[in-house]
Amino acid sequence: MSSPTGPTPPPPPMYPVASSPVTPEPTGPGLSEPQRLVNVFISPSKTFLDLGRNPSWWVPWLVASIFGVLFGVVANQKIDMVKLARQQVDKVKFVQQQFEQLSPEQQQQQLQKRAAFTKISFYFSPIINLIIVLVVAAIMMGVFNFGFAAGVSFQRSLAVMFYATLPTVVASLLLAGSIWLSSDPDSIDITGNPMATNPGFFMDPEAHKFLYNLASGLDVFRLWIVVLIGLGFALNSEKGKLRPSTAIAATFVVYGLAILGVAGLKSAF
How many domains, in total, are found in the chain? Predict the structure, then answer.
């Protein structure tokens, strides 16, 4: 029997109806190496997130190495390395005492050897930098993996460190420019505190050695690097379990302990 409004509609099918497939959001090809380098300075989160796609580290190491060698070329041309060697001797009391016990001829020989070593060391800076970053990357990986269960691989840790230390390129360019343009480049202490980027630059290094070395550690470029390291490890932690604020604070604690140790060691000599 039909209903007053018309025939009864058939029951719905008992099998599921196929739905339209959901198209995933395009992820894009990732950043190129030049984009990574630029974004470290203008949008570091983009660079560090891209390390999850490809945790390569050799490009920032190569860039830093090139600028490090170029700085060495400028320093060798403009600075009297013998005078610099004498300044280094005068900084450490027991070295100065031993040096003064030598004859004038022996003193000159020692200064010449030190000057030659300093000249050569500029050109070995890429290898020295590589070794230092390898060690620090291992330490920071241990801090975050054991202390915060971040799950960051060593390759990612190494990539984070090399990209995070790229502000040293800016520091090298500024220092090279000041050496090149200075009327007295020998007055610039390139092995100590050469630029007014920290409070220690304005202090007497002999009056309060510990405070001087502590204040020297509060350098604008070093603090910039500390922030980038913390951010990089946070964005590369497993499943994003490490918050950037926590990682940056932890990196500051590690750096603070380091400058306290260095300041204490230097003030003892």
Answer: 1
